[in-house]
Amino acid sequence: MIVLSRPDARMRESYLAAHDEFAALGEAQRDGDGVWVEPPDDGGYEGVEFTREDLETPEGFARFVRWRLDRAREDSPRPTGHVPCTFYWVVDDGAPTEYLGSISIRHRLTPFLLEFGGHIGYSVRPSARRRGVATSALRLVLPECRALGIDSALVTCDTDNLGSAAVIEANGGVLEDVRGDKRRYWVDTTG
Q1: Helix, strand, or coil (residue 25)
Q2: In sequence order, which residues have a C-beta less than 8 Å from that of residue 26 and are 6 or more positions away?
Q3: Residue 87 lies in domain
Q4: How far apart are CA 83 and CA 147, in angstroms?
Q5: pTM (predicted TM-score)
Q6: Domain count across the chain
Q7: Does pLDDT of 30 surpass 70?
Q8: What are the start-end ranges of the H helices in the chain?
Q9: Could you tell me which residues come within 8 angstroms of residue 79 by beta carbon, excluding any fewer than 6 positions away?
Q10: In the predicted model, what is the mean pLDDT of the chain?
Q11: What is the reported pLDDT for 66?
């Protein structure tokens, strides 16, 4: 059964293997979880950078996990214009250290997120696709959205990503419109 886990340093090897799968398909920058560098900005954000070599060490990966967990805190440093974001890693409860993908909740919408990014972003590693992982992960994260005060979550996908559109629709997503190359759905989180 698919479950959500907070980022965990025990998943280092599996996370890196999944990243290699994503990178091989040109998907290394997915839903924010594949981002390891945030440059400093004019608003006082000092920036952060993790290299592959950092993440291959237990210490470096543990720092990455702490950073990922801290992103949910309102007072956590972040680039100007970014909002708190809670990350979950998707696992099978029979193999709790096997990273299957990630799903994240942006706690509120900025003008950019309202147009393109939405409240929720997700990705499933290529070797775990077409097994219902994304559908289950989205279903499981909706109560977490509700707990954050999000009654209706905006979830977007590329217009040509029919698999993602099916995931959103299977979870009750109602298409509002298409803007540019993004389909924009609203999903009720109140059950």
Answers
A1: coil
A2: none
A3: 2-188
A4: 17
A5: 0.95
A6: 1
A7: no
A8: 12-24, 52-56, 58-70, 111-112, 133-147, 162-170
A9: 38, 41, 43, 45
A10: 95
A11: 97
On whether the CB atoms of residues 2 and 140 are closer than 8 A, the answer is: yes
Q: Which of 114, 126, 185 is closest to 155 using CA atoms?
A: 185
**45-95 tens-digit pLDDT:** 999 999 999 999 999 999 999 999 999 999 999 999 999 999 999 999 999
What's residue 36's pLDDT?
A: 87
Residue 181, helix vs strand vs coil = coil
d(C-alpha 180, C-alpha 45), whole Å? 31
Task: Please report, for the domain that includes residue 8, its CATH number.
Answer: 3.40.630.30
Kindly list the distances between the CA atom of residue 189 and the CA atoms of 98, 153, 158, in Å, as whole numbers in the listed order.
27, 7, 22
Tell me: pLDDT of 148 over 90: yes
